[in-house]
Every structure is written in C-alpha cells, then in structure tokens.
Write a structure and sequence with these properties.
The protein has six helices and five strands. The protein is mostly helical.
Length: 227
Amino acid sequence: MMYLLLVLLNIILAFSLFSWKRQICEITKQISENKKLRISLSNKQIEKLAGIINEKKHLEQKTNIQIIQEKEQLKHSIANISHDLRTPLTSIQGYLTLLKDCEDKEEQEHYFSVIQAKTDYLTELVQIFYDLSLIESDDYILGIEKIDVNRIVTDCLINKYNELKELSPTIKIENAPVWITGNAVACKRIIDNLVTNAIRYSNDYIEIVMDADGIFTVKNTTSELKI
C-alpha cells in the first residue's frame, strides 16, 4: 500500500514538474516574442510574476512611444526655429545687396534702419529660443507678471510687416494698453507662432484681432487642410 502511494506521489510530482517546465518554456517563448504573458497554470506566485513583467513591458512600450513623439517634436521645433531665423536673415541679406548698389543718402539711411530693425528682431528671436530652452528645464520657475499683451501683438505685427502687407490683412487692435497677468516670453512665442502660421497657410485672407478683454484672435482661409 505504501509502495503504491509512493508511486502515485512520484507520478503527481513528475506531472507537476513537467507542467512547470512546460509553463516556463512558454513564458520564455512569450518574452522572446515580446508578447503579453499568459499563464496556463493556476499559481499565485507565477501570476504575480507575470503581472509584474507585463506591467514593465507596458511601461517600456509607453516610454518608447514617448521617445518617438519627442523626437518628432524636436524635428518640428528645429524646422520652426530654422524658418524663424531664416526669414530675418534673408531680409538682411537682401537689404545689404540694395545698400551696396545705393548712392542716395536717404535710401541708405532707410536701408540701414530696416537692417537694424531686422538685426534687433533676430537678436530677440535668439533670446526667445534661449529662454524657451530654460522654460523646458525641470528646475525653471515660470515668472508671472503684469504685461501689456496689446504691445506684444503690435510688435509682432510690425516685425512681420513685409510678409503681412502682401496679404492685405484685416487688423483690429486697441489704441491703449491691454493688461493681463502672464509670462512675456511665452506670450510672445504663442502670438508669433499664431501669426506666422496664418501667414504661411493663408490663401488670401487674414484677420487679426486684439480686444480690450485680452482676447487675441487669428483667422485665415486655407486650402491645405484636408478632412
């Protein structure tokens, strides 16, 4: 009787070992194939281990997706920065060419003033990009202050005068300061991006409005957006 019991226990143990070995092989295969782990044996410890591995794999996938998105965003940001810097540089080069062949004093002074304005704008852009790099750092504290957003909009429109005049935009801005609480650098960047995109993608209509309540609106028609 004891002998039969030992034989039975050995058979059960052998079957259990075989089942565990088979489960381990299946888990190894699922891990190598980067699949979500599925457990056939009813064992709390193995189920817990599989849950931990699945959670780590899920976090790894999320991290990889985030890295890809950040790379794409970086490419887009670099493209935008290149465009923003190229515009005033191209204008400066053009006016330098005109200045080289110009002998009229008044025209020379006009070209010098335009070049100076474009140079100042280019310097401001570089400073904005530097400030933005600081904003994105973890230890940066965004400063909040009282700012005249109407002044920011006006400066932006002046800097983009040559681009805007070809589109004959409808512009409605206040004749007095419009005070809001915010960050001047961030507001400048947002407003500049909105106006730049409107110019870039507009067919023939742009409307820019800055009202007394601090609401800034940009409208434009375009044929490049597809639904």
